[in-house]
Specification:
3 helices; single chain; four-stranded antiparallel β-sheet; alpha+beta; Alpha-Beta Plaits; globular
Amino acid sequence: MSDHRIAPVVPVAAHEPPYYAVVFTSLRTEEDTGYGATAERMGELVQHIPGFLGEDSARTPGGLSITIAYFRDLAGIEQWRQNAEHREAKEHGRAHWYERYSLHIARVEHSHGFQRADR
């Protein structure tokens, strides 16, 4: 999953349910070496997983990060979980970048969006 410092701030569009949301909430350590490049690489890789629908990410001034990745089905989530580069990044993250994190997988039963019309 990627670091969105450069990406435009636009939420992922609503999709036809059901689908799944993978919610990754983390608090990082002071060590930052290589994090940005790895996050960028993960963002590129996950886009090639069948059923990946997009991701939203935010970070509070206090350092809490929340990334939500959306997948059409559990098979896509499992394929991402088993990806060798992703597994290596997770291992490195636990050893160096994360003070703590939690991961939640939820089935989305309802989804809709809104966009203000041009005036």
